[in-house]
Design goal:
By secondary structure, this protein is an alpha/beta fold. The chain has 18 helices and 14 strands. The protein has an 8-stranded mixed β-sheet with strand order 13-12-11-7-10-9-8-14. A 6-stranded parallel β-sheet has the order 3-2-1-4-5-6, sandwiched between helices. The longest helix has 15 residues. The protein starts with 10 loop residues before the first helix and ends in a 22-residue tail after the last strand.
């Protein structure tokens, strides 16, 4: 490998600093197995292009070891009992959304930093609920939380490289599980999550909050109503200048997020952009993502920021950054549609998720939101997107017009809908197949960039179920 490869870590480093073996070996796992390379001729080259070097034939789709989880409802329950693992910035911000609902009980909390777990427990008590059990005895104490008999759901908000292990432990212990982005780090791990979900009959969900943004949900309903005609293309991104936060000595628990820029060139955080556009196009529900081709810029911006803002004796000066400052990926679907994904957290840029959708009748583009649809608009002038609110806002946004919390309220709505589905015994809005597809660009974009932009096959994690139309985030309001 031409990336910096850290030495083997301690277990503490895996959860606290992100210097885990999962990260060190990701390039080999993602780029060195047949499972992620398209077979010669599988993805046709564009006319006049130079053929990519033939890679190994893709591994056959593994046989299903349990029935599909597509369309499988939760068991209804009067009280939803939750365990939360990880109380960094994300976990600490999310616990209040679980406590906002009277039918939810936070039974157990886990973090290797005792003070963080204790603050979370105090928040539970302050909300008038029984004190939760604490799991603070090292980085593997999550396994003891998952083994409890009085839990229905485990929420995971830890550094990325621990998501797979904790989700695996939760399902093996009979719990449904929801993880923050990304769900796992390799294609092999994604397949294992799919297989475990099917074998254990427990849902494993990528809790993608951007799927519940007001604009995203309105565009989704408009697309399903045919306002865009036949869908042709979409785009999603994560443009967020994180330089100051990644070099902050206090914002993250150790430098784990910055260290990923020493290991991978690809799209480190595809889910925010990919999830909503996949919903618009009914990926896994009538269409599927087939391949991804990625290119990346040089990695210059983090080193430049360090030179200007970080003292010379700081440990970060030992780091070599290889992660592309901006990655651009094109995803092709089975219906021939194109999805553009972008990732940039290293350069100066106002926040944007791009969030666009185009079809034979017009186009929507976000940041700022604007729309052009025939026959509603004319003379090549953008129309007012807010004019479609009354007719097409999702029922969640009509029921909760001003949801509390960060990210414009979509965090609150995501948790509300999750625990509603758990309590009422509904089919979740997304499942393990969505988690796998939305996360697959992480390892595959890295593999594609290393291969000069050559297309990489996106596995059919549904094993053919994608051809069956079914509901998703565009849900019907339950009685």
């Amino acid at each position: 490998m031409d990336e910096q490869t850290p030495h083997s870590p301690s277990r503490r480093q895996v959860l606290r600093t992100g210097a885990g073996a999962a990260g060190a070996g990701l390039g080999l796992t993602a780029a060195g197995t047949g499972a992620v390379h398209a077979a010669p001729g599988t993805v046709p080259s564009a006319p006049g292009s130079v053929p990519a070097a033939a890679g190994p034939a893709p591994a056959a789709t593994p046989a299903r070891r349990g029935a599909t989880m597509a369309g499988v409802p939760f068991d209804a329950r009067s009280t939803v009992r939750v365990g939360i693992v990880g109380f960094g910035n994300r976990g600490a911000a999310m616990i209040g959304h679980f406590l906002a609902h009277s039918w939810v009980r936070v039974v157990a909390v886990c973090d290797p930093v005792r003070a963080k777990a204790e603050r979370a427990a105090a928040q539970v008590v302050a909300a008038g609920r029984p004190a939760p059990a604490l799991y603070v005895n090292g980085e593997e104490d999550y396994a003891n939380l998952c083994a409890r008999a009085d839990l229905d759901f485990v929420y995971v908000a830890t550094p990325w490289e621990s998501h797979f292990a904790i989700a695996r432990s939760a399902m093996l212990n009979g719990k449904h599980v929801g993880v923050e982005c990304p769900a796992a780090l390799t294609i092999d791990e994604l397949w294992e999550l799919v297989d475990l979900s099917e074998r254990t009959r427990r849902h494993c969900m990528q809790l993608e909050n951007c799927c519940y943004g007001r604009n995203e949900m309105r565009v989704l309903r408009m697309a399903h109503a045919g306002k865009f005609g036949e869908l042709l293309h979409g785009a999603g991104a994560y443009h967020h200048d994180l330089r100051a936060l990644m070099f902050s000595p206090t914002y993250y628990e150790g430098p784990w997020r910055r260290l990923w820029h020493t290991r991978l060139r690809g799209d480190l955080y595809p889910n925010h952009g990919f999830g909503p556009v996949a919903n618009y196009m009914d990926v896994n529900r009538g269409d599927r993502a087939v391949s991804i081709s990625s290119l990346g810029t040089p990695a210059l911006a983090l080193a430049e920021y360090r030179k200007e803002h970080v003292p010379s004796g700081d440990p970060s000066w030992k780091e070599t950054y290889v992660g592309s400052d901006r990655t651009v990926s094109l995803v092709r679907t089975a219906k021939g549609r194109v999805i553009r994904l972008e990732h940039d957290v290293s350069t100066p840029h106002p926040y944007s998720r791009v969030n666009s959708l185009g079809g034979t009748r017009g186009v929507f583009e976000d940041y700022p939101p604007r729309i052009y649809l025939e026959p509603d608009h004319r003379d090549d002038r953008w129309g007012d997107f807010s004019a479609y609110a009354a007719a097409f806002d999702h029922w969640l946004w009509k029921e909760h017009a001003n949801p509390p919390g960060a990210h414009g309220g979509m965090d609150y709505l995501m948790v509300y809908r999750l625990v509603q589905c758990l309590q009422k015994g509904l089919v979740p809005d997304f499942d393990v197949y969505d988690a796998a597809v939305w996360t697959a660009p992480l390892p595959l974009s890295h593999a594609s960039i290393r291969a000069g932009g050559a297309p990489q096959e996106i596995p059919d994690f549904t094993r053919g179920e994608w051809q069956r139309a079914r509901s998703g985030v565009d849900s019907v309001k339950p009685v």
